[in-house]
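Pilot study result, target chain (340 residues):
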Amino acid sequence: MSLRRDFIKIPLAAALAGSLTLTALPSFAQQVTLLNVSYDPTRELYVDFNQAFTRYWKAKTGQDVSIKQSHGGSGKQARSIIDGLDADVATLALAGDTDALVKNGGWLAPDWQKKLPHNASPYTSTIVLAVRQGNPKGIKDWDDLVKPGISVITPNPKTSGGARWNYLAAWEFAKRKYGSDAKAKEFVAKLYGNVPILDTGARGSTITFAQRAQGDVLIAWENEAFLLEKEFGSKFDVVVPSISILAEPAVAVVDKNVDKKKTRAVAEEYLKYLYSEEGQDIAGRNFYRPAVSAKAQAKYAKQFPKLNLFTIDQAFGGWGRADKEHFADGASFDQIYTKK
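Predicted structure:
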């Protein structure tokens, strides 16, 4: 199923030029700088959003704001903040990574997710499958990924938030189809037996699949799959599985840092603006599902396929339990994955 869309082209490869990019702004005396530490596939989203926010903030306050972006695997980015990366806001791939900032140094308040609407998730996404043009291996659903001879590209769930969504989506599919966690574990072990390489982040896996031409199928964020088609045109198709997970990336102000840097006011407004009509439209334009704006949801409804979605709470009892059972040292992923 091809889901190509006609939007302004933003080359994926260009986003890899460096881990830090700076929104270009004129130099004024009255200026504030924010650092947004995010996960891999949000590069294009925040380039677009940062330009809109700087205009909004200038018009509202007269102050110039420049916004630096840092991107990488979500878990790795969380550890960078814990180790001292001076983030004003954390816009990570999953709430569990943000919770790590609470548990490891008290970088933000335990109730951080209640400070913004929609559990601090201004946009959502899901997990789909990207395949080569014409789908030569006939991949239609999750169970095709465990067949002999199928090469699957997905990042490492120890460092990538997107990879954890991928892992749990496959696990729940198998649990529902085959009836137990034990069967799901066997299924996911077979799937990772077909994975030749684990990149540290989702964008790295996209580059491995698209530019290095490795693998038959890429397990990807929905927005990343759309960007892949936009960048490379008819070389790739998107396969929508029968069931997937509702991914809810969460955003938060890093309290310790903004209080030290005296940037709380602009940092809080920056995240709130993601919920504005302009912020929600930018999310949709960048292939994320707007979480709160009915207008943006209606505008981009045809862009997103309808599929059966479950939540992390429904299937796994939340991120705390999922991390402990699947991604902690010695948990299910460590048990099933054999290093290549």
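One observation from the pilot: The two ends are 32 Å apart (CA to CA). A full batch analysis is planned for the follow-on phase.
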